[in-house]
Amino acid sequence: MFDFIGIHANRSWLVLLAATLVTFSISDNHAIGTYAGIATLLISYLKGRLVVLDFMELRHAPALWRGLFEAWVLIISAVLLVAYLASTHT
Amino acid sequence: MSTTQVIPPPLARHLPGDRDVWIFIFAELLMFGAFFVAYLVHRQTSVDLYNASQQTLDRDLGVINTIFLITSSWLAVSAVASARANRSREIVSRLAGAITLALAFIVVKYFEYTTKFAEGINLTTNDFYMFYFALTMIHLAHVMAGTVILSVLLLNAKEEKYHRQNLSGLEAGTAYWHLVDLLWIFLFPLLYLLR
Fold first, then answer.
1. Which residue from A minimizes the CA distance to B81?
2. Touching check for B23 and chain A: CB below 8 Å?
């Protein structure tokens, strides 16, 4: 039988859709304030990584290329998180 | 139409498409990365103004466009999988779907911009809107370029140029399209959600 979920790209597509809706639903929750912002950035990191691995198909690319793109997603997410947290303390 | 075959994964240790395309894509990521950081750093100078201005954006349209781009990107990678399995009709239908969603993204952005312009809000209104219009317009230019690339791939696919032995052009073109998706995945929460 055709295994839809068994394929990385298909599974990632479903996860990306679900993650988008989660981010959307928590973003206007003032009760959790800064935590919603932190969660939003963490979810963006996970989404970015899935696009790199399963849409760009770098999961099976030479380590240098996979590493470069994974590093971009990780570093940009970390820098954005630090910049965001800095703005919540001013 | 029923598909009973499992889509074969890419060959082990394979860089899809062409190395030069990946260098270009990485350079784009570095450029946009600088934009993203500049936005959040500059936001610290007047967080309240940024938050108040952000409230006027249509978050529903933003999330709809996110779903369009993610699904379009998924259809593009599915087209590559179809080519690996030598299913030429499927390549055409998936690329056509990806292009349709790219056009839908552009139409939604058009309505977002014209609504803002009608309210008298533009690039010079304040710093938040300067970033909002500049970053989303640069991104939109990439969406349009990507739509042209996907259309070229579609024309080639209709002539059955892509198959298991000839994937490079299709992989390179769709890699660029995933870049456009990846950038939006960061741009959307930064501009529309983070407060």
1. A9
2. no
What's the structural domain count of chain A?
1
In DSSP notation, B88-113 reads: HHHHHHHHHHHHHHHHHHHHHHHHHH
Q: Where are the domains of chain B?
A: 53-193
Distance between CA atoms of B35 and B22, rounded to whole angstroms? Answer: 20
**pLDDT per residue over B106-152, tens digit each?**
999 999 999 999 999 999 999 999 999 999 999 999 999 999 999 99
- Contacts with B112 (C-beta within 8 Å, 6 or more apart), sequence order: B57, B58, B61
Distance of residue B68 Cα from the nearest chain A Cα, in angstroms: 10
Q: Which amino acid is at A29?
A: N
CATH superfamily of B53-193: Cytochrome c oxidase, subunit III, four-helix bundle (1.20.120.80)
Q: Which DSSP symbol is given to B189?
A: I
CB contact (8 A) between residue A80 and residue B37? yes
Here the ipTM equals: 0.93
* A2: in domain: no
Q: DSSP for B141-157?
A: HHHHHHHHHHHHHHHHH
Residue of B nearest to A24 (CA): B63
pTM higher than the cut 0.95: no
